[in-house]
Amino acid sequence: MGKSRPATPTGDKQMTTTAGPDTAPDPGTAKKPAGVRVVLFALMIAMLLAMLDNMIVGTAMPTIVGELGGMDHLSWVVTAYTLATAASTPIWGKLGDMYGRKGVFLSSIVLFLIGSALSGMAQDMGQLIGFRAVQGLGAGGLMVGVMAIIGDLIPPRERGKYQGMMAGVMAVAMIGGPLVGGTITDHLGWRWSFYINLPLGAIALVMVTAVLHLPKKRAQTRIDYAGAALLTLGITSLVLITTWGGTEYAWLSGQIIGLGILGVVALALFVIVERKVSEPVLPLHIFRNGNFSLVTLIGFLVGFVMFGSMTFLPLFQQTVQGASATNSGLLLLPMLLAMMAVSLFAGRVTTRTGKYKIFVVVGGGLITAGLALLSLMDTGTTRFTSGVFMAVLGAGMGFLMQTTMLIAQNSVEMKDMGVGSSSATLFRTIGGSFGVAIFGAIFTHQVQSTMAERIGTAGEKMTSGGAQMDPKSLAQLPPMIKDAYAHAVASGTHHVFLWGAAISVIGFAAAWFLKEVPLRGGPVTNAGSEEGAADRVLVAEAV
Fold first, then answer.
1. Distance CA 266, CA 235 (A)
2. Which of 65, 178, 460, 523 could pair with 452 in a Cys bridge, judged by C-beta atoms 3.0 to 4.6 Å apart?
3. What 3-state class would DSSP assign to 293?
4. Major facilitator superfamily (MFS) profile domain: which residues (predicted)?
């Protein structure tokens, strides 16, 4: 009795708990679900900021280029943001572990809002690119901050109750982003596509400051600057390869090969440095846990096939099925609603039973099946049929999106919650970058080949600068060319989804090797009464 638990990152003060019945919290009052929901609402606003931004800005880009010029630098508006986000994600996670989650998270929100305000005031394309990089640095801390704080506040066993909320935010961003972006650009001007972040961010700042109570830390060790620099260099090289490969430069060009060599060398040196420093920015020991390594691989593959595939669904809907840009977003509803419903179901069952492996296995199978079904689409596929296929894919995503993060967080110690969350987020992000690049290359090659087969070299030249045609320009072309392009896009998406299904089989196979490790925060047993009681105290005290 009297044995104290080490300081944890989830209370205002260092707390002590004992295994004795006199210190166990009352189950009816300790969890304070209303307080947890208030905290989660504030965190969801911050998550919405990060997810909405790219979708809103993407809709406004044609108008931005029309006013600022700099068409040749257009891709850098997106690339600068993506690079900064990916490179800063693991660093934000480590800073939260070292210095306390709340202060670091608030800093990331402030940095994101500063970048948003500056981007809205940009006077030329160079300024916009630089300010987007600032915005991306803040965005890197938003997602990992939300996930790590949730990992601190809510034991994995209880987290399933709130999965529907997180899935709902993702659906709102995917559907509402283009709609909001178009409305803002048309009625308020493109600068408000950045300024809209300011009131949302202010609400998040006030709410997080008021309702989230986490301890301040002061690490005694030095920050791993060498490791952070090498990791940033390695991630930057990988992202640039996926961004430039096949578009700006040929895949076998000196620039791409040079970036590949630079990335490999930087990451190899990073591993050497991380083995020697006392407080590594990305502790390699977390990968010794079999479940963590497997779920990181699965997360990478989910990002690969999900982001890669979803890039081409709207194009298929607009070009082949004749949907407008707005309707193509609404046509994704079957996938997003299925994802929300399944995520909520899986979360509830996980909370009640503590079982989660079955959901990863079933999710991997459904994603593979969904992609295989989508590969069957052609120019005669109806919207209803494609909607059913997308619902299957969405169900698989719903089983995996939050469950993989839950397993990753349950596989690391509380002191490594930040780097565990950031690692899972980072690998999913890099997987998405690779998926978009590789599927883009497959799609472009197939469209060019099909156009050449149908209308000869003229068709190949029409798509040599990029496989996508503007829908307005396409509508003015002769019926024969429009028909050829529709078949070319259908053929390209067929190959994308077919390759996606083949790659997703790897994730499905990996899911079978996961071990059903008990989730922290489950029912109190004689063997684990102290840890279970302490976890419930942490939830109560944090809110």
1. 9
2. 460
3. helix
4. 39-519
pLDDT, tens digit, 9 for 90 and up, residues 79-114: 788 888 888 888 888 888 888 888 889 999 999 999
Q: Output the CA–CA distances (angstroms, integers) from residue 24 to 16, 522, 528, 532, in the order listed.
A: 11, 14, 12, 9
Contact between residue 97 and residue 422 where contact means Cβ atoms under 8 Å apart: no
List helix spans (H) across 411-478.
417-455, 457-462, 471-475
Cα torsion angle, 54, 60, 66, 67, sign: negative
The CB density around residue 123, as the number of other CB atoms within 10 Å, is 9
Which strand (E) or helix (H) includes residue 319?
helix 313-319
Answer for the pair 101, 258: CB distance below 8 angstroms, yes or no: no
What is the per-residue DSSP string for 205-237? Answer: HHHHHHH--------SSPP-HHHHHHHHHHHHH
Asked if 448 contacts 467 with a C-beta cutoff of 8 angstroms, the reply is yes
Structure tokens at 219: 């690490």
- Token pair listed for 110: 């402030």
| Mean pLDDT to the nearest integer, 311-325 | 76
pLDDT tens track for 164-190: 677 777 777 776 776 777 677 777 888
> Which two tokens mark 519?
């989730």
CA distance linking residue 451 with residue 434, whole number of Å? 26
Residues in the chain: 543
Full-model pTM: 0.76
Contact in structure between 148 and 421 (CB atoms under 8 Å): yes
Is the distance from CB of 181 to CB of 148 less than 8 angstroms? no
Q: Using CB atoms within 10 Å of the CB of residue 77, give its burial: 0 to 12 exposed, 13 to 18 middle, 19+ buried.
A: buried
42-74 pLDDT, tens digit each? 888 888 887 777 777 766 766 776 677 665 566
Closest to 151 measured CA to CA, from 301, 3, 288, 39: 39
Structure tokens at 498: 């077919």
**Lookup result for tokens 């601190």:** 152
Q: Rounded to whole angstroms, how far apart are CA atoms 485 and 49?
A: 36
Dihedrals φ, ψ of 249, to 5°? Answer: -135, 150
Instruction: Enter the tokens of residue 21.
Output: 């019945």
